[in-house]
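Exercise 7. Predict the joint structure of the components listed below.
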Amino acid sequence: MLPDQLRSKLREMIAGAESPREKAIDVMYAIQELQGWMNDEAMVEAAQLLAMSPLELEELATFYDYIYRSPVGKFVIKVCDSTVCWLEGQLRLTDYISSRLGIGLGQTSADGLFTLLPVCCIGYCDRAPAMVINKRVYGNLTPEKIDRILAQLAQKADFSGSE
Amino acid sequence: MSESKTVTLNMGPHHPATHGVLRVVLELDGETIVNATPVIGYLHRGIEKICESRTYQQILPLTDRLDYSAASANNLGYCVAVEKLLGIEVPKRAQYLRVIMAEFARIMGHHLWLGTHALDIGAMTVIFYAFRDREMIMAMNEEIAGYRLTPSFIRIGGVAYEATDDFIAKVRKFVAWFPKALEGYHQLLTDNKIWTTRTMNIGKISAEEAINHGLTGPSLRGSGVAYDVRKAFPYSSYGDFDFKIPIGENGDVYDRYLVRMEEFKQSIAIIAQAIENLPSGPVMTDNPLVASPSQPEVQTDISALIRRFMVNAKGTPVPSGELYSAVEGAKGELGFYLVGDGSEQPYRLKIRSSCFYLASALPRLLVGHMVADAIAIIGSLDVVLGEIDR
Amino acid sequence: MPRLIIDEREIEVPEGTKVIDAAEMLGIVIPRFCYHEALGSVGACRMCAVKFIQGPFKGVQMSCMIEAQDGMVVSTTDQEAVEFRKRVIELLMKNHPLDCPVCDEGGQCLLQDETISGGHAMRRFPGPKRTYRDQYLGPFIKHEMNRCIHCYRCSRFYQEFAGYRDLGPMQIGDRLYFGRFSDGCLESPFSGNLVDICPTGVYTDKTARFKLRRWDLQRAPGLCNQCSLGCNTVANAHYRGVMRMEARFNRDVNGYFLCDAGRFGFSYANGDPGLWRRPLFPKIAGEVAGAADALSAARKALDDIAAKNGPGAVAVVGSQRNSLETQSMMNLVCETRGWLGPVFFFDPAMRLKTLSAVHELDGEIAVSMKQIENADFILVVGADPLNEAPMSAMAIRQAARKKAPVVTIDPRPVSLPCDSQHFAVLPKDIESYLGALILKAMGKDAASLGSESENFRAYLGSQLENFNPPESLDQCARLLAASSKPVIICGTDVTMETTPAFAADCVRLLNLCEKQAGLFNLLPGAGSFGAGLLSRTEVPTFADLVEYIENGRVRGLVFAESDPFHCYPDRARLESALSKLDFFLALDYFPSETARRASVFYPASTIFETGATFLNQEGRAQFASPVHCGGEPIRPGEHPPRVYSGLVPGGDHLPAWKALASIAGMEETCPDIAPEKFVPPSIPGFEALGYPVDGQRPALAKSGFKTQWGLNTFDKSQAPLTFELLMVEWIFGTSEFSAWSDSLAPAVLPPLMSISAKDAVRLGLADKDKVSVELAGGELEIVVSVSDRTAESVLIVPRHNGLEWQKSHDFRVFVSSEKIRKI
Amino acid sequence: MEKSDIINVSKNRGEKGNYVKPILKGLQFTMGNFFKKPVTIQYPDQKTVRSQRWRGLHKLNVDEKGELKCVACGLCAAVCPSQAITILAREDEGGTRHPEKFEVNELRCIFCGFCQDACPKSAISLTKIYEYVNYNREDFVFDISILKTTGEKWNS
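Solution:
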């Protein structure tokens, strides 16, 4: 199922490790980069490559918020729901985002651009409330700022991995 | 040549005047009783043994079936014993309701005694009035507990249900009315020459002998011993009520009659005080090991459901230990000797049946009397075979 | 040894004891969910909080996480700790569904017990409860994830303790989910333990689903009689049928656990004609008859044969599943009446192996499963623990978890739930590998060990002349040399006749090298040890008996809990031999072919109905108490019985040994059950014990070196390009119990013939090919499984109930390559 | 015991020699009641009303869809002091639990009402029916079909 090129790249990556298991996250990231999320077939194949049982890989995959086991949109908005952000009005902001995009937590917008997810503390408490979109962190959020960010992203179709 | 020979007369177990299945083997010299042997066991159900394989809750309906003429008093005795072993406190309102039920049970028991005792001796009228009034109490039992004779209303940790307004109204009505009915019983019997002739100086027993025979209750008090568990070792808030212990002087059938007639009066006085001062509050303890939670709780709350499950299926674990706890039943001291082993079922439950001691005094009481007096004496002791045989 | 005070009582406990266990030694049971003695502590549930008043720790702490130390003063009843536990249980109950009425765990649920004892009485949290989707986990276990309280016991047992990798925790926090990657059968043959170990009803017993409540059950301490280990069980019966099995704790035998074959393989004992197949009525010539009639008919027929042809014309046949009582009675009957027997073994080689395994074992080298768990080197020779005695594989895993190396030497592709070094060798080479390993491990300085060592070296010298051990054997030898408590686990199924004795002497040699080595035999059945003890040398095996029948010497047979149709490899010959008999009687609880054909059939009672003693493979006598009285099961609509009957309908079934006594006319003279009268005085250790003997290992006399291994009768020659057909056991599907227990049927896999990868190339076969193997009695069609862990030149075929392997005509069969054909 | 707690009932006892006066007194009481409305009723033509809490024959309740509320949890059978209830559970296609068999032996029953107190689903309750007759003892073993419609037989 996986493209041969990717598979050989993954094999190489695993061969360089002391034990295959330690590369589990990197392998999943690599696959996710290609196809957006980890589907069941990819899990089984990755597990074979890593000499793990699919369950063992699933344990890891579902433990981390940044590995997706179901399809996500182009931009994954992760709003921090930990204590400091909560104190600073995270609930209100989440509601704002979800009403603006018309999606609830865990849902993907109809155009396939945005997915909204809650996430545990991202270490940005000094600029709470905060959120992460793909790999970029945004702090000191206000509704206006969110409007700006979302409009920007919607235009920038190939926003994929800028830091 | 004349030969003296006694005649053996078998009275019971199916005799209209033995009130149950008591059998008394009488040895007669002419018409005089020279020897009497009570034979019991015709109603044996093995209740004490059954109790060893039932949870404490399940035993409760069995206690109704000891002295079935005064079932609630037995419930109370059993529950008080288990609660002492458990070390739990019963809410005040429940204690008052218990007192009401137990005193009603006493009145019911005395009604049955009065009606049948008089009937045996030949006074037919009284039983109609006694049963008319007993019926009213039965209706109240039904109102509050759902059952007439064996209400199983008093439960470990409290009582089964809250008292309805209708019940309280009925109790008030009965309390107001009953003294008049009692006056009627007196009119029919107390001064009646036939009645006094049949009962005075019959079946006399002195205070010392009564104690030695283990008599308790009205039969003991008829001989002048002022012993009543309610006063001597108050339980279930009996200390809150103002009532008197009637005693006799002569220890004969007539004095026992008078004692019981006075007890009617005292009981109704207790009920009147209890119903007027009925405290508010819950009617069941909140101890989760004992109380089964209410239906709405059970259907929404898993913790309550688990409690329901455990209390009903497994029962209440009662700490190990043993105790003897007694209450004043309608017939005398009703004691429960309970041995708990930490499980949900008693290791042993011994019931001290007051009627058993009453029946065992029969040989002493009957000897020297005429056969006809035997009826009066047995009636005056008021034995219930459900309790003797168990 | 630390001394501490718990609840004002002082106790001294061994170093490393957890406070929770120290309290339990005092009889104070601290509430717990995640802690389990076998699984250790993780501190996940926070339920075992106690107050530490004095000592190195202070305040409320988890008693499962802290080891007992000197000077500790602990209170379990401190208000703070009690309050803490009450809050914990309240939080744990936050998501628990309102399920008790429909949950099978209700009534035996730790969560229920702790909720009550914790004093949590009212829910205060008004919010919604989280819900999960349940998974299909196979035929034995029902999954109901909503009930989970996240204690991790299941995944710790399944992954860490049992060593399987298909069930575990997924997601995090509130979403935590225990399950498989996708729906499917659990791979572990120990999955049934999830039912016992789960503190609530996430995993429930599917075979007993909705059939029972704990308080309705009759329970008795029982035994599993499906393999030679003798695991302890609790049998639960209801309505005169066995409803479920639980593991019973026995530190020396099975610990807390049980395998699935033992746990779910009980339904053979249930006899509802509509549901199960157990025969319940005696039959004379196929017609239902009364119990007394059947016994007297059998007695008369056998007496007639004995009178006409001499007592030797009657033979008594037992099997590997006889209890000690049955075996002893057979012995007694044969001695008294002069009948031939008792015949316990079908295969002469198996008889030799069992006898030597039993007689070579002595009290000094025998080890229990507990000792396997503590071994530091495990050598498995000629045994497949997971298939022959599953719980021993679990014990091996526990040793492996403590870093003990595991080495297996076997022709089969032995797989264990732990890392192991496998040498795929032919049965004839097992001794060479074992010998070479021991020799290397003994090293050079072992020359001074004495004559035994000399003999051993001399013998091996001749054996190892043309033997080139692989490199990896040296590595294993070094590990063995470094170990102090090695254990050799020796099988009897595929090994040579001499291997058990050889293994025993290897253990003794290791002991001479200042090791505490142990021997653990795996025997073919629950009654094997007893059969080995009580077997008399002049008695033939069943293979000989068939000849006697054919030549007319034996004219009457008694099968006591024995079914040759299951065990004898030549069905056609067996059928004709049985038809030659004047009379044969079957005493059994299985609806076997033998029972169907028997002149008289008597339904013997099972282990659940009349108690039975079994000697497990280490010689430990254990008694299984009866759990119900037997008789016809009560069908819906019949309970409670409306008609009084002094006798349970169908409840007059005698155990096989009592029926046998009656048939032999010995019910008067037969001693009442007492081992010292039953078991011959030549076997020491029983006379001192009362009946029933339970849990004790009657002293096995010290036997010392036998050095019988020189007298090998095993034909080691094998023509080139031939394959030895090795018949082996599987955990599900090969035993008689599995054949007649419908509850196990869903777990039975179709038969597979295992061959090595090299042989597969040579024969032009690939994995999953269907082949036909031409045997003396016809063609055997089977699917091939290719493995590089299988030895070369063998065909490994399970004695599968769905396979007519009884065409092989002999116990040891060779097949030439042209007889294997792909179809 | 305090003196004041005791009341001596034999104080006024005397051998009263008059036969006539007490008998007239008794007759007066009787005549006083003679013209009152009788307290008895003409059973079975007339019947008294049972209280709401009356513990009569059992009934299995059904939900809005007409299906039994009972899930065969077995609590009523467990708590029953006279072991009058027999339950067997079954699993339906959806995996839910239902009573396969639910029998109440009304002759064993002592009508203590523990079953309805125990039921977590309000599935079993006691009706107000106290008169029930049959020709056979067996007919008093009520199964689900009878328990679902308890009382129809005797009320019609």
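Discussion. Chain C has five domains: 3-92, 126-265, 283-344+539-636+649-696, 352-528, 722-822.
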